[in-house]
Amino acid sequence: MTSTNLADIRLDYGLRGLSPEDCHADPLIQLQAWLNEALSASVQEATAMNLATVSPEGRPSSRIVLLKGVDDGQLCFFTNYLSRKGQELAESPFAAVTFFWPELERQIRVEGRIAPLSASASDQYFASRPYASRIGAWASAQSQPLTHPDALRTREQSLREQYPIDVPRPPHWGGYGLTPDRLEFWQGRPSRLHDRVLYLPDGKGHWQRSRLQP
Description:
single chain; 214 residues; 9 strands; 33% strand
């Protein structure tokens, strides 16, 4: 068996550069532009973002969720409100998300306050989901112990019989919107001298762009 030395694994980036002048004055427009490029480039799971939350004890946790919209100044995603992330967000309504698109040598980091979306917004998105996904939202008590896989399948079958066509949105399931107060756009560069552009509110309803050292 060949042993790989992890310390020797590295890539040298150099597709393109990035400066504050290259970036739109509105960071969410810049984010949407980069997201569109990732989608056009057929980046796998381009909407996947690492969501980091923190417990009341200050213990961080993270997982991958899917971005489902950039609306009204918010990054929107949907999940079970009773999951670990939902419980942590209820206690500490701040979070950070990270997009990473290695094919484009790009990363976006976003931090801000999170709040649940309206019931109507959650209803609208839930109704657009495939039937099996809507049943799954009812079947899974997300983040709770599972005694046996058969128990989950039995509950799923029971719910299919209960809701053969129309599946209402569970009260414990819905959307969140993250309103950013800090965004960073990262473009890989040679010799690890990466380009980093930071957006911060200027206190006057606009954003200030600056360059960070790599």
